[in-house]
Amino acid sequence: MTSMPTPAPYVTPDAAAYWHAAAEGRLLLRRCDECATVIWYPRPFCPSCAGSSTSWVEAVGTGSVYSFTITRKGQGAYREAGPYVLAYVELDEGPRMLTNVVDCPVDGVRVGQRVTAVFHDTGQGTALPRFRPIGADEIPAVEIAAVETAVDEPAVGG
Amino acid sequence: MTIRGAACIAGAYEHPERVIPDRTVAQIHAEVAVGAIADAGLSLADVDAYFCAGDAPGLGGISMVEYLGLRKVRQLDSTETGGSSYLLHVAHAAAAIAVGKCRVALITLAGNPRSGGRAPGGGAQGGAPESPFENPYGLSVPGMYALAAQRHMYEFGTTSAQLAEIRVAASHHAQYNPHAYLREPVTVDEVLASPMVSDPLHRLDCCVITDGGGALIVVHPDVARDLQRPKVAVLGAGEAPKHGDNGRIDLTYSGAVHSGPIAFAEAGITPADIDYVSIYDSFTITVLETLEDLGFCDKGAGGRFVMDGTLQAPFGRLPFNTDGGGLCNNHPGNRGGMTKVIEAVRQLRGEANPEVQVPDCELALAHGTGGSLGTRMGSATLILGRQD
What we know:
Chain A is mainly β. Chain A contains one helix and eight strands. Chain A has a five-stranded antiparallel beta sheet with strand order 6-5-4-7-8.
């Protein structure tokens, strides 16, 4: 699954450290200096106490799957990717982040599954944090099919 | 101060077409504006307030005011919350009317994604601060709703067959709507047999993509008094964003938990009083969570609630989306809020398709969910009443 598309994120100045750390295999989180809330998504502002003094801390890199879906046909960079897993992973520090679960069969993902971070290089000095199942939570493979017909792609709910 | 009784919906018009390859979005806006103003029995020259959302071409309504030749607009509102925008527009128009800012408000929606216009998932997210942390992971519109469905199933035991009941009810209604994009009734088994798009959502859990649009005319009660059409009063409205909550997102509920109680309190009624509901149905899971959040059943009980024909008009316990909804009839411009209000108006006027007209329909609720159930949304609840 490391052949998954790894599009580069748009790097804003306030998140450059996050993306560059990911390229070194480290997952950073932003934490409020005043109320100690772990902030997600990373920003130099605490949405919990409105404090503007925040710092980077390194996450342990483990968590569990809060929810997931097997996207049968992706869009954009994922158009030719085949089925892949989009998920919310709840980090052990608290935040739930959108990500992909990789390095396992797409039908091997479960809610509550323990996962650990892996880092996929974008080739532009950044990397995407993704997650793979760990230990007993690795589930053996079964073949799964992509959508065969051209589906009437659903409309936005927005 | 309240908007209860401060304004009436005097005109409503849904574009009859679902595929419009040959006209601009501005032209479709104009067509629905003309349709709604004619329905009200007024003239565009009477319009002194204009409301539109991000689907309107140009800058915040100014371009469309020029296109339409509106000359006395003194209230302009381009509130944008995705597909729910038009419910907020009704509420904002009522508020503006209540304080004397205007008397005849026009609200329009138009789009042509079916014919290759703006793609689903497009819109105003460009440059959003959260985008770098979401977009690289291959988000898809159905995927974001599938995440909510998966978690709802995990926490409450909701099944795909229960979600399918929602599509079955919508298709049952759509067969009586000559304009519906999909008119064929479907069974639970057919929904479950349709291709998986993003687990656990099947193709038939998803709404249609259509061109088209709709428009509403909201007026001061004094204006409504002189018109011939049945009167529909705005009784209450609530609006609320719901978002990622600093990474503590809970996918099992929508912003309706906030917007619903505000609307019910303003109208002075409870869910048990409602005769008909238009529930935003981008996906079946959107309906299920919203019904729970509005208090029509307990949280987690939505799956059981929608079984046994609860949502089927005219005799189900809670008839919903009698035009066929976004699932079968129309989701113009990838935005379902306008058609939700329009069908509620039809029900209160007694002008729904006869096979699905709810007998003695006096109180209706319309609810919109703009944005995404899987991340952040603008929720809006509107309560309308027949005024004899």
